[in-house]
Amino acid sequence: MVCDQLVCSRSRPVAATFIGKGIVEQLADKVAQCDAALVIFDHALSPIQERNLERAVGCRVIDRAGLILDIFAQRATSSEGKLQVELAQLKHLSTRLVRGWTHLERQKGGIGLRGPGETQLETDRRLIGMRIKTLTRRLDKVEAQRGLRRRARHRTPIPTVSLVGYTNAGKSSLFNALTGDNVYTADQLFATLDPTMRRLDLPGFGPIVLSDTVGFVRDLPHTLVAAFHSTLEEVCTASCLLLVNDVSDPEHLDLKLEVENVLEEIGAADVPRIVVNNKIDLVAEHSRDATNADGLVDRVWLSAETGEGIERLQQALSALLGKQHQEFVLKLLPGGGEIRAGLYRRCDVVDETSDESGNVIITVRMSSAERGWLESKWPLGGLWQDLTGSVKCNFEDVNKVL
C-alpha cells in the first residue's frame, strides 16, 4: 500500500543523496509517520546514494530499475524468463554489494588456518561473477535455439505480426480477441513476460503468426534490455507491428512516444506498423480510423474487451500484409525444378498446374524481398517468366495465353 508521495525539483541532483538535505529530512519524517518499510525513487540512483538515503530514512530504498526488476522477478514463469530476470538482477546487484556489509571483516586465512583469506565482499563478488557467467552461457544456448526456430519460421511463407506497446495497454486482451485464446491477462504491470505465439487465419489474407510480447516502459534499464535481447529480436524481425495504445490513460500520447523510442533503440523503427488505440469503451468519444499516404489504414480505434473494431483491424492488417505480399503467376520451364522447390520453401504457393509441354504455371504469394531473391538467383526470362500482367490468377486464361 502506498502511504504517501513526495515530489521535488532540483536543477541538478546532489551527489551524496540525489535530493537536498531538507527534502531528505522531510522524507525521513514521512517514513517515521507512516512506519514505511520501503521508499521508491522514480529515478536511477547510484549505489552510494541508495546507501546514504537508507541511513537517513531508516528503511530500504530502491530506484526505478530496482522496482522494475522486482516486478519482473514476480511475473516470470518460463525458464528462459527466470534466467533473463536473474541475470539482470545480478548485474544490478553487483554494483551494490557494499551496502550489505558495514564491517567487511576479513575471513580467517593464513598458515594453519582455513579460509580463502578474502573479505566477505570479495567472496560475494566472486560468487556473483561465477553465477553471471553460468547464466550467460545458458541464455546463449536458449538464444541459439530461439534463433533456429526463428529461421525455421522465416523459411515458411507465413508472416509474423507482433503486438507491442506500453505495459498494461491491453496487448494480451487483444491477442485473445484475435486468436480466441486464453492467455493470462490482468490489470497490472508486466502481466506478460514470456512471448506467446499462435497461428491465426486472417480473413482476406491467410495464415499469419501472431506474437504477444513483453510490455515496454519508459527509462527501461539497460541491463534488462540486454537480458531480454533474444525476446526483443522477435519484434525486430516481424513483418508488421501492432502498436497497442491505451487511450483511456490521460498520458497515452506520451506513453506511445516512449514505445516508439524503445522501438528505435532496439532497431525496429522501420518495421511497418498499425497503431491500435485500445479501450475505447472507457472513453466518452474517440476519433475515426486514419489512413496513410498509400491509402492504407494505419490507425484503428477498438476495444479488445467488447470486440468493437476487431473486424476493422483485421481488414487493415490484411490490406497491409497484402501490399507486402502480392500474388504472381509464374511460368516455369521444364528445367526450373530448383526454382519450384525454392518457391515452395520460401513463399506461399496458392496453386499450380502444368501444360502439355511440361511448363509449370504456379501462382505464388511473395513479398518484395522474396521477389528480389528470386530475380537475383534466377534472372527473369531464363528458366521462368512472369505472366502476372497478362492473367489474373485464372488458369483457364493462362492456358489460353499459352
How does this structure look, described?
- With 402 residues, the chain is of the alpha/beta class.
- Helix content is 42%, strand content 18%.
- It contains 13 helices and 13 strands.
- The strands form three sheets. Strands 4-5-3-6-7-9-8 form a seven-stranded mixed beta sheet, with helices on both faces. The protein has a four-stranded antiparallel beta sheet with strand order 11-12-10-13.
- Helix 3 packs antiparallel against helix 4 (79-93) and helix 4 packs antiparallel against helix 5 (120-155).
- The chain is elongated, with a radius of gyration of 28 Å.
Annotation keywords:
single chain; 402 residues; alpha/beta; 7-stranded mixed beta sheet; 4-stranded antiparallel beta sheet; 13 helices; 42% helix; elongated; disordered C terminus
Major sheet details: 7 strands, mixed
Overall 3D geometry?
A: elongated
Name the average pLDDT. 79
Widest beta sheet: strand line-up = 4-5-3-6-7-9-8
Number of DSSP helical runs: 13
Based on CA atoms alone, the radius of gyration comes out at 28 Å
How much helical structure, as a percent, in the residues? 40-55%
Percentage of β-strand residues: 15-25%
- Termini separation comes to 76 Å
Give the class from helix and strand content and strand pairing.
alpha/beta
What are the secondary-structure elements, in order, as H or E? HEHEHHHEHEEHHEHEEEHEHEEHEH
Uncertain runs: 391-402
Number of strands: 13
